[in-house]
Amino acid sequence: MKTSPLLRIGYAALATISGLVLLFGYRTSHVVTTPAQALPASSSLSSSSSSSVPSDTSTTASDGTDSSSEAGASSSSALQDGTYTGDAASTRYGPVQVQISVSGGSIASVDVIDYPDSNHRDQQINSRAIPLLVSETTASQSSSIDLVSGATYTSRGYVESLQSAIDQARA
């Protein structure tokens, strides 16, 4: 049985439209993040700042609402001057460890002393992610920062180690 060319064109058009609807309707990310400040490309993984902003630990859920935790609820002005090294946070790709320097009661600089860099892909991801995380930390003066898309494991490890260092600075 032979089908008419007009019918085949109709099927092809419906298949194409269905494919496009499926393609454009697919959500690749469920976490809402805002872009961090643009940073110049550099090999340095530390930053300095002296602004003081109240601190809370919160994350943005997929529906856009904030959920806060008590871990970072007190002000960063309660930090004691000195250098504090957070506990190493184990991630799927390796440990992440953060060291902060506190001056005048606020986070003056952040150094990432350990992070996954065993292969080219880790190096590529973290060369972009770590400066963004450091910048967010010095701007917010807390561990309440946006995670970097594409570097979720490193971002979560960074926040965990950062919170550990901040807790030490408050003690």
Average of pLDDT: 77
> If you compute it from the alpha carbons, what radius of gyration comes out, rounded to the nearest whole angstrom?
22 Å
Taken from the alpha-carbon principal axes, the silhouette is elongated
Helix % is: 25-40%
Brief digest:
With 171 residues, the chain is an alpha+beta fold. 36% of the residues lie in helices and 22% in strands.
Key terms for this structure?
alpha+beta, 3 helices, 7 strands, elongated
Structural write-up:
This protein is an alpha+beta fold and 171 residues long. The chain contains 3 helices and 7 strands. The chain has helices at 5-25, 120-140, 152-170, and strands at residues 46-48, 57-60, 66-69, 82-85, 89-91, 94-103, 106-114.
SSE arrangement:
Blueprint: H1 5-25, E1 46-48, E2 57-60, E3 66-69, E4 82-85, E5 89-91, E6 94-103, E7 106-114, H2 120-140, H3 152-170
Antiparallel strand pairs: 1-7, 2-3, 4-6, 5-6, 6-7
